[in-house]
Amino acid sequence: MNFGKRVEVSVFxxxxxxxxxxxxxxxxxxxxxxxxxxxxxGLGSGEFAKESSxxxxxxIKSNIHATVEQLVKVCNSQLQGKRGxxxxxxxxxxxxxxxxxxxxxxxxxxxxxDNQEKKRNIPNSGYLAGFHRTFKVMKHQLxxxxxxxxxxxxxxxxxxxxxxxxNKSMESITKTYEQTSEKVRVDDTTLIAMRYV
Length: 197
Ligand SMILES: [Mn+2]
Fold this sequence. Notes:
Layout: E1 7-14, E2 24-30, E3 34-42, H1 47-61, H2 68-78, E4 85-93, E5 98-104, E6 108-113, E7 118-120, E8 138-141, E9 146-151, H3 163-166, H4 170-180, E10 189-196
Antiparallel strand pairs: 1-10, 2-3, 3-4, 4-5, 5-8, 6-7, 6-9, 9-10
Helix pairs in contact: 1-2
Bound molecules: manganese (II) ion.
């Protein structure tokens, strides 16, 4: 096995002011064939919100070979009767050389290549709560030297700087975010910087 060789990852996470535990859950992994990253944010706060975001992340963890479409569908069905959750998933297929991403609700995903070709996902509105729903998955060719930035809705638009997309060190992106963003968070905040080399 050959873990972590193709995608460099750095994560910044901070809970909402006054909360000890963060309601956002995330997961990422790399295998020989693919890279998968997801952020889930349970609606509301407290233990039921955390339960929903954790259900979603556990499903993705145990089904990393599934497509983004399949993952969103299974996560949605497993949230029936639970507190809803918003979800962003990014999947890189190293063999097919494709990137696929989808977000249901307010999880942002952006990508930028070294020659400044920038893409931002169009989130599907709403949230996952077991109801049948349609959603779009954006699929692109996977170019080497591409940064992917995924973030929960605790990240404010004004905190997203151009620098995040042009820097080649993922650790410096999350460190810079830590230094320049508001110290007091009004919502749970997760920012994941990834670079496919
Ligand atoms: Mn949130």
